[in-house]
Batch of 2 targets.
Target 1
Amino acid sequence: MEKTLAQFQAERLAANERILTGENRVIKRFFRLDGETYEDGALPAKTKELLGLVASLVLRCDDCITYHIIQCVRCGVTVPEFEEAFAVALVVGGSIVIPHLRRAYPEKSDAEIETIALDMWGHMARLAVHPDWQGHCIGRALLTDELQRAQSHNTDGISLNVMASNRRALRLYTQMRFKVVDEHTFVWHHRVC
């Protein structure tokens, strides 16, 4: 039976926690180095995650492939970008990569691939400021605090709903780089990665 992405993430995090409770400095340094390697630098994190995905396909490490697919989705990699990365892996690694490519290849559209990441998102049910206190940056402060809290809990971001008639809220969410996901129900989201 194949694991869901949420199960994979939970098992991976639990195993990493067990490993890192040990006292070995080399292991701890390696884990830290591995994490820092994929942060933005001269190359953006998105490019680094695609490189990690290609290397994982060539090395035929299924857990690594799954991990890098999750990270790529978090960084906004699209289906066409995945396809180009898969092509590079196939050319570099040869036909031995094909079984791993079959498992990694998305059967989804851009919109469906985006929802993979929603397993790791929070949702803000309500953000309200009393009318007497609106216009005093209280909503912005509350939203900023919630985004920081989401980031500290290793979520990818926050989704929320807003009424189309609430112009003040729409302006705040736009200024804070939220993006409309669904215009029919007016769902917005904001990545923290």
Target 2
Amino acid sequence: MKKLFIISILFMGIFTQANENMITKITNSVNEDSDYKVTTLYQYSNEEDTKGKRSLFYFVKPAKKRVFVGEPIRISFKLRKRAFLYIVTISRKDGGAYLLFPNNSQSYNLFNPKTYYVIPERSAKYRLVSDSRGKETIYVIASTKKQDFEGLRKIFSSKKSIISKNIEATLKDIFIVPVEREKARVDIRKIKIKVR
């Protein structure tokens, strides 16, 4: 059994229905490598100034190509527009859905465009670590609208919940549906990382 754990763990809420014509569900791989794969799950925008680009990310990927058991997993990214970042995972050990970022150690999650970032920073008081070999799945969400941190913690703290069984639809319900009547952009990426 394997799990991805955070050494200062935290967890988070909201549901509704979405306007499907503004959501692009994408199943093709953005980047595939033998050690990781990044897939765009959803891109949503009801903003007029997107210039044909719904993506909030220039890129998002593991900071290091190869990850070994016990070694920190760090996510690097660069945004096209100022946005809030969220990172969620499903634990293989208990089946729970967990919010890894933001967290109690690093609650500030608003990032500027055209700047290279890595989460967690080397100086962070927490680490994302896999305790066994296999594939870890991490969801990285960028949104121009801030989500309620405490609400998200409540949603992503239940073990073996229905959330983890249908995580992709749940992420759409949590991050896209609430902003469908506002000017907003949301980009949801799935990263599979091979841990050696």
